[in-house]
Amino acid sequence: MTPTEPQPLTPAVFHILFALADGEKHGYRIMQAVKINSRGEFTIGPGTLYGSIKRMLADDLIAESEERPDPELDDQRRHYYRLTDTGRNTLQADLARMDALLQRARALQILPASPTRGTP
Amino acid sequence: MSDMASPAQRLVLPVYKRLLASYPAAFRQRFEQEMLLAFQDWLNAEPTPRSKAQQLKLASSLIADMLPSIIHEHLSEWRSTMKVSSIIQKVALAALAAWAVIWAWFIGKWFLLLPLADPNKWLLGEDYSHTANSIFGAALFIIPFLALLAFVIPVLKIQTLTENGDGVLMLRLQKMGKAQALVAWVCLGATVILWGMVFTARMGWW
């Protein structure tokens, strides 16, 4: 059997991984982070979020965090999720794939060359 | 938290709870409370939908988000409990084999005029009823289609993409083995031919 090729992530999975890259979060915080990270261009509803979370837990991309916030500060019914090593590697691989595409797009002048910094 | 909800939010919550109740039991057991909390947080943070149009928009975006997910979870649940799918496929294969023999027999008897016994009689008995004959006849036309479903549904993948709040449902076929694909193509071909025959006959084209 040949090893399976890494598949590009679906937008929902990519954004959830990205949202968890800077630390563990519960469902609504993930929804917020997705919206902020995509500058409001991508929103994720609870149906898509938890369906994706279920599959990502099964694929070992994320795990439920064992650390719980103070019960007085947060509802204990909430579950917090964090990236696993597999999840972080997968996210990095997808970002690297996008980066390579962007570099190629610049080389082909589909996109302008890297913006110069510090110029008004 | 729901005590603090506005009247408009109190209208939306029951819709959401009803949608939540439509998920498979195992999914609900694991995620229902979390999904409810996440939705309540979201409702509290979003501007309250005041007009009927806004409430309708919210309800429709909820349905667009949840409905593909509900279908996906049911299908995935069905598939996971369906190691049964392989049993169903074996039954489908057996039915297909019987179907092929009977059709071959019919063709041999009625078209090639071979000296064969009447398959209706040896399958349904000497004094078969009209109902038995109808069921038998329908089965001859529907078996390939059912077999096709038995082979295609286990490799059907539902993907939901959500962009700008709009849920998009995508159906994709995952790869299947060569033998499985061959059976599926044969079933599809047989279904198209048989149903084409029924349709054209009904239209009086022959």
What does this structure look like?
By secondary structure, chain A is mainly alpha-helical. Helix content of chain A is 48%, strand content 8%. Chain A has helices at residues 11-20, 27-37, 46-58, 85-107; strands at residues 25-26, 62-64, 80-83. In chain A, strands 1-3-2 form a three-stranded antiparallel β-sheet. The N and C termini of chain B lie far apart (68 Å). Chain B is mainly α and 206 residues long. Chain B has helices spanning 7-21, 25-45, 52-81, 84-111, 119-124, 130-152, 178-202, and strands at 156-163, 166-173. Chain B is built from seven helices and two strands, in the order H-H-H-H-H-H-E-E-H. Chain B has a two-stranded antiparallel ribbon with strand order 1-2. In chain B, helix 1 (7-21) runs antiparallel to helix 2 and helix 1 runs parallel beside helix 3. The A-B interface holds A 10-12, 26-28, 31-32, 41-51, 53-54, 75, 77-79 and B 19, 27, 30-31, 33-35, 37-39, 41-42, 45, 61-62, 64-70, 72-73, 159-165, 167.
List the helices and strands and how they pair.
The complex is a heterodimer of chains A (120) and B (206).
Chain A: H1 11-20, E1 25-26, H2 27-37, H3 46-58, E2 62-64, E3 80-83, H4 85-107
Antiparallel strand pairs in A: 1-3, 2-3
Helix pairs in contact in A: 1-2
Chain B: H1 7-21, H2 25-45, H3 52-81, H4 84-111, H5 119-124, H6 130-152, E1 156-163, E2 166-173, H7 178-202
Concise account of the structure shown:
Chain A has 120 residues and is mostly helical. In chain A, 48% of the residues lie in helices and 8% in strands. The interface between A and B is medium-sized, with 25 and 32 residues.
Features:
heterodimer, A: 120 residues, mainly alpha, three-stranded antiparallel β-sheet, 4 helices, 48% helix, 8% strand, elongated, B: 206 residues, two-stranded antiparallel sheet, 7 helices, 2 strands, 72% helix
What amount of the residues of chain B lies in strands?
5-15%
Order of helices and strands of chain A: HEHHEEH
Helical content band of chain A: 40-55%
Estimated radius of gyration of chain B? 25 Å
Largest sheet of chain B: 2 strands, antiparallel
- Lateral arrangement of strands in the main beta sheet of chain A: 1-3-2
Helical residues, percent of chain B = over 70%
Low-pLDDT runs of 5+ residues of chain A are none
Q: Could you tell me how far the N terminus lies from the C terminus of chain A, measured between alpha carbons in angstroms? A: 55 Å
Number of H- or I-type helical stretches of chain A: 4
How many beta-strand segments of chain B? 2
H/E series of chain B: HHHHHHEEH
Name the chain pair whose interface involves the most residues.
Answer: A-B, 25 and 32 residues
In angstroms, what is the radius of gyration of chain A? 17 Å
Largest sheet properties of chain A: 3 strands, antiparallel
